[in-house]
Structure formats: C-alpha cells, structure tokens
C-alpha cells in the first residue's frame, strides 16, 4: 500500500507461498495465522547451528535456537558449559594467553572471539632494521622498519655498491650490467659495468621541459638544457606580446588596478594574471574591545573578537575572574569573601570587619572613645573623623551637579554624662550634663551665720568668695541690720542702743528721774 513505484501488470505476482515456503497459495484457516500453512517451519536457524525452527509456519525471522549444548569459552581454557545453542559463544573474562604475531608476548586481552583476532602487541622491544645495521626500541606490532641509510654492500659485479635504502634480502644484480642504452635512448650497447656508455652522436630529440619542443643538441650526458627557441608570448595580464625564448616567462610593467579581496586596497602587482593574491597588509582596525587593533591580514567583513583576556581582581587580589578583553569596562568587580584590607582612616587602630570591596570603605561605626578635653569622660558617639558634610553655600551646592559632599572631621560633641553637683550653699545635689555642670542657686535662704552670731543670712542661696567655713558668712552675705534683741538686766526697761552684736550688752547709761515717797523732790539716777 502507498507504494510510489509503478509496476507493470506483468510484474505483479499471480501466486505466493506461505511463510516457510512449503505450500503454494495456502488456504484460509481462521484458527491459524493468516497466510500460514500451519505446519512446522523447519527453516535452518541463523546463525547456522545445524538445527531447524520448531515453531509453526510464522512471519518474520526465526527466533534464536532454544536447544542446549555444551561448549567451551573462546580461549578454550575453561571446562565445557551447558548453554543455549543461540548463545553458545561465551567469554570466561580471563586473559586470552595466545601468542601474538611478534612471537614473544602473549595476548592479555580478556577471552575474546576469533583465534587470529588478537590485537597488536602493545609492548616494546629492541628490534633491528631491515639491513641489520641499527637497533631501536620499537613497538612489537611493527617489527619491519628502515634506518634510512644506504645499503652499501658490494654487488655481485665486485666493483659497485648497492645504493638502495636499508632493505632486506639480496641486493640484486648491478644496474650497470647487461645491455644499456645511450643517453638519448636510440642506441643499445652491451659493455662491462666498469665502462660508461658513450654518446651515439645522433640528435638528442628528447622532449624539453616546455613540452612543445625537442632537444636539438647531440646525444649528451645529463639533463637537457632550457628551450632556447624564440616564440611569441603574451604576458600574464594579456596586454602585451613579445618574441622571447620559450623557456623564459614574459611579464610587462603594467600594474594591476583591481581591488583585492579585502575591498580596501588595490592589487598593484606587475602584470597580474587576474588572480590577485590575498592582501598582505595588516587589517589594523580597532576591535570591539576598544583596546587593541586587528592583527589579522586585511579582510572583508567584521573583524574577529579580540582573542586576549583580562584578569579582573578584587581590591585585595585574592579573587580573580578572567574576562574577554573589553568586558572589564562594563563588568562589576568580582565578589570576594576575604575581609577588607584597607588601612584605617580614623583614630581607631583597625576598621570594623567587612568584606573586600572597591571604592571607599563605609563610614566607621565604632564608638569614638576619645577622652574629652574638659573632663575625664570618653566620647560615647560613633566615630566622626570622616563625616560627609556640605561645606558649600546653598547656591553653589545647587550648581554642583555631581553633589560630592566633602569629608570632614567633626569635633567631639559636649559631654552629656550626668554629674552630681551641689548648690552654692550645699543645701542639695542635682544631676547635670557634664558639659553644663556648675554651681547653682537652689532658691533657699543662704543660712550662713552672720558676724553678729545671732542671725543667719536670709539672701537666696548665693556664691561666697573667700569663704573660710561652710557655715560662716562671706563678703557676699547680707549685713545684719536688726536691733539688739538680747534680754535686758532686771529692772532695765530700755532696749540696747547698739545694733545686733556679739557678747553681752553694755550697761545702760540712761538717767532715770525718781521722786521721793512724798513726791516733793525728784532725783536723777543711772538705770541699772
């Protein structure tokens, strides 16, 4: 069905046989395979083992022989084994052991088929050349070799030596013995091998190297000379003709104006035959890498990519990536797992551990810990030795398109460590930032004892200079303006005229007017 080959009507079969070929036009039987005769196949099995197929007439090839036989392995060293006839060839996997073609070594290949199919000997041995003059260590599989020296043995004539290259066997007869021809080949003479054949005196007439003329000299020894006959020759480019000797090549001085294969340069070869040679100049065009020029001969079309490579390294050089030349401009540096080796650019002895990178290191994030100038505390802020800061004016910063901030070192901020300080009069203690700590007024009365010894300073807590004691009043304390309130002696009703003072009051010096009992007289007496 669907055959595309057209057959003649006479080529169409008119009868057919069953699959095994025993019965012609087998009758249809619904209980057997169509087109089968139903008998035993009996066709010889393949490979030919001497048994026949035991299946009923069937389509397709016969199956392998199912009978069992006793066979040995390929090398025959093992005892016979019972195997299927269709797979009776088997290998024992032991070394073959057969003597190889070299005659010295045995086959070490595992047991294999074929008695003469052993591989060539893989070992080497010292072998002599064909003439026996030299010895060399060579593969056993190729024992015949030539030493490339002239044989040099005396021939049977006894006068000449063999000029053949290293060979085996006899050298043969002397090539100068027997009947020989003169140089031109027209006359044959039999002479001893010690005598040279003389020339015959006739014209040589051997074909010259030009292939058009014959030698006009007399019979001579050696090769014929160049052809000296004059002929009209056309130059290679076909523009000029000239009568010259046949053996000479005629070329004109006209330069070829055709473009070479590169389509960039002219041929400019004298008397060109039209087959302009390839351009011999260097291309010299800049390659795609933009770093090198094309070193090839001048050519058409685009240049090949740059064959060079570039090693791109990380900053520390531990990680290297090989890139095609030109790719280093658009490729990112390789990622390195090593720690950054940039030296510290701040007052810390080392940077924070971070991976190798290109460009500037990140800003140091360690604690400053510098000793502040006005106290014994250390700076608790992050390192501020290299801080990007905008030092330009707003107008200049707006004009700067790159906006690269300047890196400056900022001073340590004021100390904010809480410190306990007392007020001027040491009435209470408060916590202040270290940079703002100072003596202060708590708002309470001063309370220092005034020089009078009776009262205390009632001014708001204040600073006292030249203090000798924490309880005695200083120059800044108020002066006591109170009158003396000390109790008077009994009987004295007058107050002390002195201001508040220390010690006992003076005796009252006022005069009192006293009347007698009858009130007729009055007497002035001193108050007690």
From TrEMBL:
Keywords on record: Metal-binding, Repeat, Zinc, Zinc-finger
Organism: Nematostella vectensis (Starlet sea anemone)
Family membership noted in the UniProt record: Belongs to the NFX1 family.
One Gene Ontology cellular component: nucleus
Entries under InterPro entries matching the protein: NFX1_fam, Znf_NFX1
Molecular-function annotations in GO: DNA-binding transcription factor activity; zinc ion binding
A Pfam family recorded for this sequence: zf-NF-X1
Domain NF-X1-type: residue ranges: 49-67, 102-123, 157-176, 210-229, 262-281, 289-308, 346-366, 375-417, 452-482, 492-510
Origin superkingdom: Eukaryota
Protein name: NF-X1-type domain-containing protein
């Amino acid at each position: 069905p669907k055959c595309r080959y057209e057959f003649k009507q006479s080529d169409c079969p008119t009868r057919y046989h069953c699959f095994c070929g025993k019965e012609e036009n087998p009758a249809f039987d619904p209980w057997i395979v169509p087109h089968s005769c139903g008998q035993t196949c009996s066709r010889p099995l393949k490979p030919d083992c001497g048994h026949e197929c035991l299946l009923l007439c069937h389509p397709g090839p016969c199956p392998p022989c199912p009978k069992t036989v006793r066979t040995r392995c390929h090398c025959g060293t093992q005892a016979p084994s019972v195997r299927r006839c269709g797979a009776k060839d088997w290998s024992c996997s032991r070394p073959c052991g057969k003597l190889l073609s070299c005659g010295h070594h045995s086959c070490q290949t595992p047991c294999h088929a074929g008695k003469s199919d052993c591989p060539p000997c893989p070992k080497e041995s010292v072998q002599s050349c064909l003439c026996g003059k030299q010895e060399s260590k060579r593969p056993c599989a190729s024992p015949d070799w030539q030493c490339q020296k002239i044989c040099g043995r005396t021939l049977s004539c006894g006068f000449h030596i063999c000029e053949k290259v290293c060979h085996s066997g006899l050298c043969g007869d002397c090539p100068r013995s027997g009947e020989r021809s003169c140089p031109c080949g027209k006359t044959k003479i039999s002479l001893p091998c010690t005598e040279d054949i003389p020339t015959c005196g006739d014209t040589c007439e051997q074909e010259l190297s030009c292939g058009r003329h014959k030698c006009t000299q007399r019979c001579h020894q050696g090769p014929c000379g160049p052809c000296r006959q004059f002929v009209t020759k056309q130059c290679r480019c076909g523009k000029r003709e000239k009568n010259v000797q046949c053996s000479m090549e005629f070329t004109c001085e006209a330069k070829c104006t055709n473009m070479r294969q590169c389509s960039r340069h002219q041929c400019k070869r004298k008397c060109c035959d039209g087959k302009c040679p390839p351009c011999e100049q260097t291309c010299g065009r800049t390659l795609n890498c933009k770093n090198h020029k094309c070193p090839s001969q001048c050519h058409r079309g685009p240049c090949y990519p740059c064959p060079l490579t570039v090693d791109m390294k990380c900053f520390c050089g531990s990680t290297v990536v090989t890139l095609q030349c030109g790719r280093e401009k658009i490729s990112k540096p390789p990622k390195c797992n090593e720690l950054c080796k940039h030296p510290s650019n701040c007052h810390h002895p080392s940077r924070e551990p971070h991976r190798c990178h290109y460009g500037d290191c990140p800003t140091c994030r360690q604690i400053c810990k510098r000793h502040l100038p006005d106290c014994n505390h250390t700076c608790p802020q992050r390192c501020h030795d290299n801080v990007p800061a905008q030092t330009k004016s707003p107008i200049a910063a707006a004009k700067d398109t790159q906006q690269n901030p300047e890196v400056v070192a900022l001073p340590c901020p004021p100390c904010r460590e809480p410190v306990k300080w007392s007020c001027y009069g040491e009435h209470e203690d408060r916590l202040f930032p270290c940079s703002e700590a100072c003596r202060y007024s708590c708002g309470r009365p001063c309370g220092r004892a005034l020089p009078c010894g009776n009262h205390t300073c009632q001014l708001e807590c204040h600073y006292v200079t030249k203090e000798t004691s924490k309880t005695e009043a200083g120059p800044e304390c108020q002066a006591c303006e109170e009158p003396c309130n000390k109790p008077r002696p009994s009987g004295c009703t007058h107050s002390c005229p002195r201001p508040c003072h220390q010690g006992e009051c003076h005796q009252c010096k006022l005069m009192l007017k006293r009347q007698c009992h009858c009130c007729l007289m009055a007497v002035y007496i001193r108050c007690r």
